[in-house]
Amino acid sequence: MSDREFSSSDDLSLPKATVQKIISEILASDVAFAKDARDLLIDCCVEFITLISSEANDIAEREAKKTIASEHVVKALKDLGFEEYVEQIVEVAQEHKEHQKSREKKQTKLEQSGLSQEELLRQQEELFGNARAKFHQQGQPEM
Fold first, then answer.
1. pTM surpassing 0.70?
2. Which stretches of the chain are DSSP H helices?
3. How many other C-beta atoms lie within 10 A of the C-beta of residue 56?
4. From CA 119, how far away is CA 124, in angstroms rounded?
5. Closest CA to 16 of 50, 37, 43, 39
6. How many whole angstroms separate alpha carbon 129 and alpha carbon 78?
């Protein structure tokens, strides 16, 4: 069930403004980067990502996994001859895992409200009652 062929590569892209920002941060301030060069770079990046993700998907499928893990991406890089990226990828993946562990758990809106479910239900019923009353008031013919 490989997805090597996509319906249209036009469907896949990267945000131009973000790529432009990365380019600007990397290049010296006196160096210009043409828009058509940026678009070509984006196309190359999309092709690279597609190649790696497709290979990683194949690896995951061979292992009967439904989720592509970072290990699959690392193996795909090695299998496709991009070993020089593996060390940095592993470091970034580890940093990401550490960041995820230390990140505070997001609160749901219910938790953020500080109200009990009973109080929220009471408020909801009150709002529904007000809306019903307003609806019935507007529906009455004027005399």
1. no
2. 16-26, 35-62, 70-79, 86-102, 109-113, 117-139
3. 22
4. 9
5. 39
6. 64
Contact 49, 37 (CB under 8 A): no
Show pLDDT as tens, one digit a residue, over the chain (143 residues).
Answer: 444 444 455 578 999 999 999 999 999 989 999 999 999 999 999 999 999 999 999 999 999 999 999 999 999 999 999 999 999 999 999 999 888 887 767 767 777 788 888 888 999 999 999 999 998 888 666 55
Which amino acid would we find at residue 74?
A: V
Burial (Cβ within 10 Å: 0-12, 13-18, ≥19) of residue 55 = buried
